[in-house]
Amino acid sequence: MIRRTRKLRLVASPxxxxxxxxARMPPMRTSEDFRALDLAVHADRRGGYTTPVLLGYAQYYxxxxxxxxxxxxxxxxxxxxxxxxxPLGVPLxxxxxxxxxxxxxxxxxxxxxxxxxxxxxxxxxxxxxxxxALDYGDNTLELQLHSRHHDDDALARLVESCLxxxxxxxxxxxxxxxxPAARVSLSLIPVERS
Length: 194
What we know:
Layout: E1 2-10, H1 31-38, H2 57-73, E2 80-84, E3 101-104, H3 108-117, E4 121-128, E5 140-147, H4 154-162, E6 168-170, E7 185-188
Parallel strand pairs: 2-3, 2-4
Antiparallel strand pairs: 1-5, 1-6, 1-7, 4-5
Helix pairs in contact: 2-4
């Protein structure tokens, strides 16, 4: 099985304008609550924040739904695993309710299962997008296509179809000398069938 990986960072909101409904935060009641928020995980030494919050909860799941829809339209025909930090009980878009989608907080066991049992492969998307200042993440998506039958450009086509600049930027420099559509890192992963 071949694994293709692409990692992108969200650097601007991909949505026209945030709404007030997207600005959900945990309830803050005392000055200690606000002080704790100010010292949260993303504070840097200068007192600013190193990782901005660019998405609300509904927008977060809309990004995931866009990826699932694009994977289906490109006929990847593979299970889609979303590894997310703190899946929350908000209404999910219909595209995430298919029997080919799993939303997990840890995907390692499911990934191994599908790598061993899927005829086509499996698409893993590690989601580290922030929805609030207390979220864990660095505004990145890591996409891994573990495949037996997909061509080398399948993952590049998925990324180009729905994760375009200026909102998204590749994290790792692409391999030199490759055309833009083929700039994904490749590594062979041996799969033993029983």
